[in-house]
Amino acid sequence: MTSTDTAETIRYTADVVVTTTNGHVLLIERGWDPHKGEWALPGGHVDPDETSRAAAVRELAEETAVYAQPDELDQIGVFDRPDRDPRGRYVTVAYHLTVIPGLPAEAGDDAVNVRWWPLNNLPPLAFDHANIIRAALRAA
User: Fold this and answer.
1) pLDDT tens for residues 66-117?
2) Is the Cβ–Cβ distance between 22 and 139 less than 8 Å?
3) All domains of the chain, ordered by start, with CATH?
4) Confidence check: pLDDT of 58 > 90
5) Which of 8, 65, 134, 140 pairs as cysteine with 106 (C-beta 3.0–4.6 A)?
6) Each residue of 85-104: b (16+ CB within 10 Å) or e?
7) Separation between Cα atoms, residue 60 and residue 70, nearest integer Å
8) Taking the model in full, what pTM does it have?
9) Burial bucket for residue 58 (CB in 10 Å: 0-12, 13-18, 19+)
10) Which residues contact 41 (CB under 8 A, 6 or more apart)?
């Protein structure tokens, strides 16, 4: 197949790894497929008029009621493995935010639940989010 045969649709997303100074990470329980009912990082699609960093801030607030300034997020990297999402090709830019323990979080938007999980006792995670968390911890 040549590049003129079929154009691949690529979707652009942003994810956020929020950790506490005492070793917890903020996860959402997904309210929709794929991976409905599974735990994942807060995140979502980048809108046409925003950067991935702005999308990360917006999605974090919409899904968890945790508010951050764009400059508080540290970029972890780009995750673009072709099979990382069963819906097709998704490329995400992942960010890291460190907060103090006890920060309240509340499920909203696409999340049906939100919870602080100990980093040493995580549930099975959707997509490649375990890899993203490992990358965040290496970079911290």
Assistant:
1) 999 999 999 999 999 999 999 999 999 999 999 999 999 999 978 999 999 9
2) no
3) 11-139 (3.90.79.10)
4) yes
5) 65
6) beeeebbbbbbbbebeeeee
7) 11
8) 0.93
9) middle
10) 15, 16, 17, 27, 28, 94, 125, 129, 132, 133
